[in-house]
Amino acid sequence: MSVEWNGTNYIYTDPDTGNESVATQAQINAAMDSATVPIEDFEALLGKLEGSKMRQQRQKSVEGRRDIYSQGLASMMSNF
């Protein structure tokens, strides 16, 4: 079963005849139920997401330390 979005409607392609028509909700649901992703692909993507989040947090921490340092330096300079 093939259901694709064409920008306006979901289009159902009949696997037997190859004819296309606007998909019904039942056809969309059946296509969604049959859509699967291998667990290895999901785990790989999840690993990339977790790695990205850790890098973002590390970068945020580094920038926070820079801000603290520059504020401290500015405060020291204002005392002179």
Q: Flag low-confidence runs.
A: none
User: What structural category do the secondary elements indicate?
Assistant: alpha+beta
Mean pLDDT: 83
Task: Name the strands of the widest sheet in spatial order.
Answer: 1-2-3
Number of strands: 3
Query: Could you say how many structural domains there are in total?
Result: 2
Brief characterization of the structure:
The protein is 62% helix and 14% strand. With 80 residues, it is an alpha+beta fold.
Sequence-ordered SSE layout with sheet pairings:
Elements: E1 2-5, E2 10-13, E3 20-22, H1 25-34, H2 39-78
Descriptive notes:
The protein contains two helices and three strands. The chain is of the alpha+beta class and 80 residues long. It folds into two domains: 2-34, no CATH class; 37-80. A hairpin with a 6-residue loop joins strand 2 (10-13) and strand 3. The longest helix has 40 residues, at 39-78. The relative contact order is 0.08.
Keywords:
80 residues, alpha+beta, 2 domains, 3-stranded antiparallel β-sheet, 2 helices, 3 strands, elongated
